[in-house]
Amino acid sequence: MQDHSVEGVKAVISRDALQELIGFLAADNYRVLGPTVRDGAIVYDEIAHVGDLPTGWTDRQDAGRYQLDRREDNALFGFAVGPHSWKQFLHPPIETLWTARQDDDGITFTAARSETRRFAFIGVRACELHAIAIQDRIFLDGPYRDVAYGMRRQDAFIVAVNCGEAGGTCFCASMGTGPKADAGFDLALTELIDAARHEFLVEAGSEAGRNLLDRIPHRSATDADLLAAEAVTARTRNAMGRKLDTDGLKELLQANLTHPRWDEVAERCLTCGNCTSVCPTCFCTTVEDHSDLMGTSAERIRKWDSCFTMDFSFIHGGSVRKTGGSRYRQWITHKLASWIDQFGTSGCVGCGRCITWCPVGIDITAEAAAIRATPKATREEPHEGA
Ligand code: SF4
Ligand code: SF4
Fold this sequence. Notes:
The chain is α+β, with helices and mostly antiparallel strands and about 375 residues long. The protein has 13 helices and 16 strands. Helix 9 packs across helix 11.
């Protein structure tokens, strides 16, 4: 018999009920987004059916390596994170700020239209919830509130998924950000799959989540269900591919700005900026103005930028950070050290994307460990731009 009086509660739903959940969100005019397989990777896109999820797929990840593989079961969330993050929806790669048109009556400026449909994110991992919380602090809590981000964010409905599969480059356990979602979701799922069943433990994290759970078929969770769900995240925690020793890391990095390791990593780093693009917390942007050849229309856009480009630190006379070493050092010391001074939290949630998607396999955990292994080493002559 179904229990329809859900309160703060953990319940169990079937795969079919998950389909109903997606259907209700779509009917409520949410733009439902979730993981799906495309071009050999698991990416985030619009989904309408449970079958759009990466059924039976997993991913194999290592430094500079990513590959999809078949699972032995039909798990819907049996993989880690891919190249996409939810950042692309809340803080889009390119955003028009305004447009202008000139005609016989003069120049008319028009503010950009923003997305009207609310987002529903299906399958948000614990590290990604922390990344969203970090971007909330950056865009909403500072003195310069980003109104467009706030509009996209405020009505988003988040269905988290506790990780059942640790990625080879994941280290959320050492960052205290996973693998179990602790806050910031409307509903959180744990996939319970074995030879006997395929169900989901659901935890409501908000009133909206409880209301939606109440609309779909469910049963109350038993102690056995709760234990099974705990075992899923415990197994994932123990299988984490990497770890980062954060003890005193901020002070360590800030005390080693002339360490020779920056030159060593510069010999490999292509300054491509992949790491900043895939990172769910990197938020830097640049602003460009474009006009048509007739001079009758113009637009101002904001687009993602990266501290790995020469232009990023260009001020009068040239770039402040001319070398790859100085740019890599800027990135990692901001992420793991000065971010804490700036925002009161690390800028890294341990998702591992920057390691997987670095074309030469540079590993933030290995670079931090290398500095820790030989602290206070200094190169003899700081290079240009250092
Ligand atoms: S660390 Fe890797 S991903 Fe980042 S800029 Fe260098 S080569 Fe590109
Ligand atoms: S720095 Fe790397 S591991 Fe940390 S949040 Fe960004 S992409 Fe993930």
